[in-house]
């Protein structure tokens, strides 16, 4: 079982190395890794169990975060579009995941991103592709093709980044951490404005609405910091 002490922290070179592709069939250690990564997410998302084992909840975790430069990630993404849903939007252990295509349009979470391996809070828009296609193998070596939009796409990009030695804050514009990229979609689950997540086309009114919202978010950032729950990856 993965415990808090097993999570590698920013500054450990393992987080900045490129991971190695995995060959099939998985060896015993790799099978255990697949099990343990998903188990960590399941336990971490259960408040009672997370407290019992003293682990931080997360929606994704990658092998380098437990010290192994192998191309494996686990994702357990809650359905933020339907908060009442009992099923996650995405649950998978991905071996050798590759992003095979990306949308031109970007998206970012207004709350920024968090990471199990980064203890400090680093605010700012983390620019990601709004849509991605991912080719990965499951633990049996079977290939899968996934088309993801919005939040699940963001989570998978964060995890796959770990396999290439990138951390979320690498994507933040340090000169202006809330500067948007043209046509970028900014997701705000806290205020339940993620309806713009859908197929609605970009338009100017959405744009100005979003600019006001971001300004007010920055203004209230310090005040609401305590209340904004970041999802760790
Ligand atoms: Zn992370």
From TrEMBL:
Cofactor requirement = Fe(2+)
Q: Which GO terms describe its biological process?
A: translation
InterPro entries cross-referenced by the UniProt entry: Peptide_deformylase, Peptide_deformylase_sf
Residues at the active site: 159
- EC number(s) in its UniProt entry? 3.5.1.88
What's an example of a GO molecular-function annotation for this chain?
peptide deformylase activity
Look up the domain of life of the source.
Answer: Bacteria
Positions contributing to Fe cation binding: 115, 158, 162
> What reaction(s) does this enzyme catalyze?
N-terminal N-formyl-L-methionyl-[peptide] + H2O = N-terminal L-methionyl-[peptide] + formate
One Pfam family here: Pep_deformylase
Q: Which UniProt keywords apply?
A: Hydrolase, Iron, Metal-binding, Protein biosynthesis
Sorted alphabetically, which PANTHER family does this protein's record hold? PEPTIDE DEFORMYLASE, PEPTIDE DEFORMYLASE 2
HAMAP family in UniProt: Pep_deformylase (MF_00163)
Sequence similarity: Belongs to the polypeptide deformylase family.
Give the protein name, as stated in the record. Answer: Peptide deformylase
Q: Which organism is it from?
A: Acetilactobacillus jinshanensis
At the highest ranks, the source species' classification is: Bacteria, Bacillati, Bacillota, Bacilli, Lactobacillales
Protein's gene: def
């Amino acid at each position: 079982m993965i415990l808090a002490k097993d999570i590698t922290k920013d500054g450990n070179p393992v987080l900045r190395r490129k991971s190695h592709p995995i060959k099939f069939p998985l060896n015993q250690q790799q099978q255990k890794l697949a099990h343990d990564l998903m188990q960590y997410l399941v336990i971490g998302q259960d408040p009672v169990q997370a407290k019992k084992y003293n682990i931080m909840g997360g929606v994704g975790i990658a092998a380098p975060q437990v010290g192994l430069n192998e191309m494996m990630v686990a994702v357990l993404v809650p359905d933020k579009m339907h908060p009442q849903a009992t099923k996650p939007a995405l649950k998978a252990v991905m071996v050798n995941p590759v992003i095979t295509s990306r949308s031109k349009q970007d998206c970012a979470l207004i709350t920024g991103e968090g990471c199990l391996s980064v203890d400090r809070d680093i605010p700012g828009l983390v620019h990601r592709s709004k849509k991605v296609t991912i080719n990965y193998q499951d633990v049996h070596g079977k290939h899968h093709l996934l088309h993801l939009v919005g939040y699940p796409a963001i989570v998978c990009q964060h995890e796959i980044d770990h396999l290439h030695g990138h951390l979320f804050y690498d994507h933040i514009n340090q000169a202006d951490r809330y500067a948007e990229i043209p046509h970028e979609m900014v997701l705000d689950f806290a205020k339940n404005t993620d309806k713009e997540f859908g197929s609605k086309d970009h338009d100017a009114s959405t744009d100005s609405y979003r600019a006001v919202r971001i300004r007010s978010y920055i203004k209230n950032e310090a005040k609401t910091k305590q209340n904004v729950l970041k999802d760790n990856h």
